[in-house]
């Protein structure tokens, strides 16, 4: 094997890894957020969880991607740690499908059907179909499918290049001497672990082993420990993704590693006993690409078989390795976990962003509610109580500032990843609303400061102004409730209730301002109290405006459009349902 063979092998490995990455990313893009919802719904039953983990990993061609997804879901509180066990077992089984596809390369026959089953023969056809889909179709889904076909063809080309490059090794005395040293099962185990940890893909490392197997120089006995090591090495991705996550999320990576370590410990012991006590001749036979796929599958099935009945012990082990931290108040940064490693599985990253935005919405809602409540219960001697509320609202406003900063930066990075059309729309929606949620916190703080000023200066409003303020506060409570429920539940029907009420609130505020001017002219209220009232009304108006923006984002996300002004104009002037809702709210909040 000369320098050109080495170059060819490296080129083949590059094509192989690139093709696998393209195929995996686009398979996940095609599945989109369906993976998350499936995981949440189907993990209650252990066997369904096992089948689901197998199916998802077969679909996205990566057990690492599945486990990283689980880390994100557990960290965000969507899944419980116990729900991930069966999915991880399934992921280990599902990842073996790739080796079976590569195993087809070893088929030998003169019949047309068998020849067409070889990847080297059908991959060019898939590549041709893929490029047609990319060039002709406008649908994002069809273009993504075309990219998957092309990625698979590139992967198979890399496999063929590697196989051709290592073919001379079959006659290399030096290579044979190296292989003799790795006949020690522990060294073979370490080799498989190291290579897989470096390239972070058991499918890729198994593919390399299958390419070497085509030379006829790899024995069955040598391949078994290497394959076991490859299953351990693939755990590195989940372990890395859990860095910075909460305690339960870190345990997901530990469980994945524990499963493969325990499986290896049991079956490597069995292998060594058979190898040194029985010494069957088959262990010295050359292994085929199909043989490697079979060993890979048997190992993962056998590991699942012995560990599934005692799977609860795996949680105990993970809790011992990653003990619970001392109880402390989590900081905003700890609550808002947006690890950039999640970007390798964009659907997991999007789920984390969605949950963080929901949390931000809840914070903003609670802050404005508290501010309105504080205004509604002002007494001249409750300054101390108002100061407590002001501190709470100020702390919440600081939190929402952090949320906006972290989420905005992360969402921009996420938008650069391979996303389905539906996921891209969610990212756009989140980028639209986080500024509105942050501004709600600002206006809540302004209202709390106004309440404090009223209490400290012992101000009072006229009975008419007090009644009007109470009425518009009730309308503001309702628009906030509708907005937040519409956003968190992604309910466009409820979101459509927001804009008519926002118009009513604008009308009420204009009416209060007119009444205030009249009272000033009659000398019924002070200028100082009038300034504070005007400040309160301005903040109320801005709050309702931000509620309108959020509701429109919910509605427009369903229509793949974010032209807010165009949508509002069309709705106000040509929508009969809007006029009907407006009339109902106007009657409800008439003074």
Name its key features.
Methane Monooxygenase Hydroxylase, Chain G, domain 1; 27 helices; 591 residues; elongated; mainly alpha
Give the N-to-C terminal Cα separation: 92 Å
Characterize the main sheet: none
Work out the radius of gyration.
31 Å
- Beta-strand level of the residues, as a percent range? under 5%
Helix and strand composition category: mainly alpha
SSE run: HHHHHHHHHHHHHHHHHHHHHHHHHHH
Residue share in helix: over 70%
Give the low-pLDDT segments: none
Count the strands? 0
Average pLDDT number? 81
Tertiary shape: elongated
Please write out the topology:
Elements: H1 3-31, H2 34-41, H3 46-60, H4 63-75, H5 84-94, H6 97-103, H7 112-116, H8 119-136, H9 140-166, H10 173-181, H11 185-199, H12 202-213, H13 220-233, H14 236-241, H15 247-278, H16 289-307, H17 311-321, H18 332-335, H19 346-376, H20 383-415, H21 421-456, H22 463-488, H23 492-495, H24 498-521, H25 527-558, H26 564-574, H27 576-588
Helix pairs in contact: 1-9, 3-5, 4-5, 4-15, 4-19, 5-15, 5-16, 6-12, 6-16, 8-9, 9-12, 11-13, 12-13, 12-16, 13-15, 13-16, 15-16, 15-17, 19-20, 19-21, 19-22, 20-21, 21-25, 22-24, 22-25, 24-25, 24-27
Overview of the molecule:
It is a single chain. The chain is mainly alpha-helical and 591 residues long. It has 3 domains: 3-321, no CATH class; 330-458, Methane Monooxygenase Hydroxylase, Chain G, domain 1, CATH 1.20.58.220; 461-591, Methane Monooxygenase Hydroxylase, Chain G, domain 1 (Up-down Bundle). 79% of the residues lie in helices and 0% in strands. The protein has 27 helices and no strands. The chain starts with a helix and ends with a helix. The relative contact order is 0.08. The model has no long low-confidence stretch (mean pLDDT 81).
């Amino acid at each position: 094997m000369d320098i050109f063979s080495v170059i060819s092998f490296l080129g083949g490995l590059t094509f192989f890894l690139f093709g696998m990455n393209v195929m995996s990313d686009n398979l996940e893009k095609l599945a989109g957020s369906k993976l998350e919802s499936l995981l949440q719904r189907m993990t209650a039953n252990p066997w369904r969880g096992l089948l689901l983990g197998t199916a998802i990993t077969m679909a996205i061609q990566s057990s690492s991607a599945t486990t990283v997804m689980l880390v994100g879901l557990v960290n965000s509180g969507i899944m419980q740690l116990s729900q991930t066990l069966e999915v991880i077992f399934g992921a280990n089984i599902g990842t073996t499908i790739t080796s079976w596809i590569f195993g087809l390369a070893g088929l030998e026959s003169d019949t047309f059907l068998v020849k067409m089953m070889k990847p080297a023969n059908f991959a060019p056809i898939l590549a041709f179909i893929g490029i047609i889909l990319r060039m002709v179709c406008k649908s994002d889904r069809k273009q993504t499918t075309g990219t998957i076909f092309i990625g698979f063809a590139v992967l198979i080309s890399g496999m063929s290049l590697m196989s051709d490059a290592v073919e001379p090794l079959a006659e290399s005395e030096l290579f044979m001497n190296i292989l003799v040293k790795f006949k020690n099962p522990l060294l073979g185990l370490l080799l498989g672990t190291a290579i897989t940890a470096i390239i972070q893909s058991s499918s890729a490392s198994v593919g390399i082993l299958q390419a070497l197997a085509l030379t006829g120089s790899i024995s069955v006995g040598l391949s078994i420990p290497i394959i076991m090591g490859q299953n351990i090495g693939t755990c590195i991705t989940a372990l890395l993704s859990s860095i910075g996550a909460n305690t339960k999320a870190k345990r997901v990576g530990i469980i994945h590693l524990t499963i493969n370590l325990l499986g290896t410990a049991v079956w490597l012991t069995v292998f060594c006993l058979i190898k040194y006590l029985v010494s069957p001749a088959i262990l010295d036979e050359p292994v085929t690409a199909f043989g490697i796929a079979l060993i890979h599958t048997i190992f993962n099935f056998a590991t699942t078989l012995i560990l599934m009945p005692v799977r609860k012990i795996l949680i105990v082990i993970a809790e011992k390795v990653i003990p619970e931290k001392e109880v402390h108040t989590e900081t905003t940064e700890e609550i808002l976990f947006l690890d950039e490693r999640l970007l390798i599985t964009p659907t997991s990253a999007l789920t984390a962003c969605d949950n963080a935005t929901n949390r931000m919405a809840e914070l903003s809602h609670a802050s404005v509610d508290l501010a309105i409540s504080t205004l509604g219960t002002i007494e001249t001697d409750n300054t101390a109580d108002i100061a407590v509320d002001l501190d709470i609202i100020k702390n919440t406003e600081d939190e929402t500032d952090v949320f906006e900063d972290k989420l905005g930066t992360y969402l921009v990075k996420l938008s650069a990843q391979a996303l389905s059309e539906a996921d891209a729309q969610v990212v756009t929606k989140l980028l639209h609303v986080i500024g509105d949620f942050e501004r709600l916190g600002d206006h809540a703080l302004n209202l709390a400061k106004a309440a404090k000023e009223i209490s400290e200066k012992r101000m009072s409003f006229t009975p008419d102004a007090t009644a009007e303020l109470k009425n518009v506060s009730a309308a503001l409570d309702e628009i906030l409730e509708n907005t937040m429920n519409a956003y968190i539940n992604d309910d466009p029907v409820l979101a459509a209730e927001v804009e008519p009420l926002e118009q009513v609130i604008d009308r009420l505020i204009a009416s209060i301002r007119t009444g205030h001017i009249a009272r000033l002219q009659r000398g019924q209220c002070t200028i100082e109290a009038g300034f504070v009232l005007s400040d309160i009304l301005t903040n109320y108006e801005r709050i309702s405006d931000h509620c309108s923006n959020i509701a429109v984002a919910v509605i427009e996300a369903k229509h793949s459009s974010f032209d807010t002004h165009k949508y509002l104009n069309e709705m106000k002037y040509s929508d009969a349902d809007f006029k009907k809702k407006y009339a109902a709210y106007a009657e409800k909040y008439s003074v």
